[in-house]
Amino acid sequence: MSIYQKFLAKLFLKNFIILFLAMELFFTGIDLMQNFKNLPPSANLQIIYASNIFLNFVNYTLPLSLIFSMLSTIFQLIRSNELVSLYALGASKRDVITPIFLLSFFITLLYISLNASNFVKANEYADSIKRNGEISDTTKHLFLKSHDDYIYIESLNPLKKEGTNIKIFKTQKSDVTHIITAQKAYFKEDHWELQKVKELRKPKIDDNDAKLTYRDINTMDALEGFKPQIIDNLFKGKSKLTIQDSFSAISLLNEQDLKTDKIRANLYIMIAFPLFAPLAILALFYPLPAQRRESNIALLSSLNILGVLMLWGLLFTVAKIATNGAILPELGVVLPLFILLLVAIYIIYKNR
Fold first, then answer.
1. The dihedral of CA 323, 329, 331, 336: what is its sign?
2. Boundary of a domain, candidates 213, 231, 264
3. Phi, psi of 223 (to 5 degrees)
4. Boundary of a domain, candidates 264, 290, 307
5. Domain assignment of residue 8, yes or no
6. Which secondary structure element, helix H or strand E, spans residue 270, and what is its range?
7. What is the model's pLDDT at position 252?
8. Domain range spanning residue 61?
9. Could you read off the pLDDT of 85-106 as tens digits, one per residue?
């Protein structure tokens, strides 16, 4: 990397940090002013709530911060005539945008990797503190189906990976063969460990001499693959899962021939949608003038900012419609980004 590219990278990074922190603190402050009266009196919980709200707003502020930082950096160079000087010294548009694009792409990849962690649950944690006064979110009276089994869970705490009063009705050709009940269950690795289990088996219909059989079991493994977060989100009709949980949920639902549209839409939003920022940076940079005399910089910067906000708002709205199952996720999330990629390639070709 040449000296001027290092200079551009540092300038972009400085602008990004300033804009990102400013937007994050602004939205976090607005949220705290609106919800502070609903928070518990504990200072620790208030700090945890503010931290999780801060992380939740990253989903909205990060792509905009990257794009606005690029525009701020380039317009700063245009006003100081440094951009035209770089071109005069032999630098091409590709040389100028490369460090900015690579930094934005790296930051975007870092953000995508965070979606494989509990980062995606930040809003859930904050809501739990606001509603319950603690980091806990218990769901009551769940009724699920897994293949030929029907499962009832009286209460589920996905954050603690704990369930209470579980009943599993095992069926064969619409006939209940036996019932398994457990007072407690904990999710371990890829299955649930039922504790203090009671099993009641019904005799076969054609066996006249058979009786009901009953036995107590200390522990039993069951419900393989049914992660607590997946159960809770599917029951509530939500689709906010980590990347790996999304793949697990899709595999689980496909095995039972159930729709996966909402889960796929959420997965595309976590993996593909953040690429909006690097693509928009390329599309916006190449048509920009080299010096102030070529256009009205104030008007041009305003139009670029307005265009970015409108485009991001449109894509975000369509993506949210896809998460509600109204349209296919491939049409609501992947297709608009693919069109943006084609537009960026066309603009680069025309203005290189």
1. positive
2. 264
3. 50, 55
4. 264
5. yes
6. helix 261-271
7. 74
8. 3-114+272-351
9. 888 888 888 999 999 999 999 9
